[in-house]
Amino acid sequence: MAYTAIDLIEIKRDGGALSADAIEWLIAAYTDGSVPDYQMSAMAMAILLNGMNNEELAALTEAMLNSGEVMDFSNIAAAKIDKHSTGGVGDKISIPLVPMVAACGIYVPMISGRGLGHTGGTLDKLESIPGFRTDMNADRFRALLVAHRLVLAGQSETMVPADRKLYALRDVTGTVPSIPLISSSIMSKKLAEGLDGLLLDVKTGSGASIRELDRSRELARTMVGIGASHGVNTVAFITSMDQPLGNEVGNANEIKESIDVLRGDGPQDVTELTMVFGETMLELGGVDGGRERLEDVIESGAALEKFVEVAVAHGGDPSVIDDPSLLAVAPHEAMVAAPGSGYVTQCDALTIGVVATHLGAGRERKEDTIDPGVGITLKAKIGDIVQRGDPLAIVHYSDEERWDAQRESLATAWTISDQPIPTPDLIIERVDVTTT
Predict the structure, then answer these.
(1) What are phi and psi of 36, to 5 degrees?
(2) Is 148 marked active-site?
């Protein structure tokens, strides 16, 4: 049957369902350029507004998965386990996590993404290490995995190319918070990796792509179900994103904080979430030892050594890992001061993430270039006591006009009250095949 993009857009715009053949045609035509960005933008918005049924979602995931090469790592006897986050502010967990589990014997073939909207991207952060390359073909991907037990790559012309194009388009068209688009994007990348197991971090709260707990739960269950249907043991955690993770928001500064975690000196929330996820990845991979094993590779330096080894394999400059002060820092600095004394009861992730994006830590247009030195260092988070004039944040920025436009907005991220509130739980619940 012959299809046209406008016919399919109109069907989805009016609340109809697309056939599997129509979805397969659409993804293939978008991948080869026959369907242009502006028509795919309209389709993405129609999907955001009207959703997809289970049959459509299965067809979309399959079409994305089969748009490129599906990896076969059956020659590697050890477990292949990966992790993916739906994206958050200050969410650098993957960067310290995967060297830790690789140092414990797990193979991690990781295909990551770039920033989406106000949420940071693992690839953007890694590329703030001078020389670090995340673009590679399938042969290079395989070689790095075999040699180092860990590879950190982006989508390529041969690995899930449909998602590579659609991911960038969603970032700049207001279509990020769509459960079908999120789940098909994540799961097509992960299923292409030839995995045995997968850990998913589904963020919920103000700074997440999906802010409502019920919808975050739906997303988690959807992706666990997709994984199970493809024979990949999948576990999801729903975690809080009402305030940023850790103390650093940006790119180069989040690499620095990740190095701190690998040295055993990271902030408590980032360290704890990294450990819980690491334990689960070891569990999925059938590796004994749990947290004690992870603590051992931190204390021995093996986890940091693995990060250096992999960074060098990707072309990165290891000197900035040895001395993180060599990482990029934007030339201008400003302080956000507490307007009064009391307890911090809000440190809004959305506001902080949006400001960081506008300052250059993220993209407002598809063609924008990330400024790796732009960053916000948090000095006060929920539960902290501050006095009037104390620093709430230190901002590093490159453009005076951008900062002038954002300074008032950033100050609204914090609420200071007479009475404290409990620190939000990091982990809200675990979702696996027994709970879906």
Answers:
(1) -80, 170
(2) no
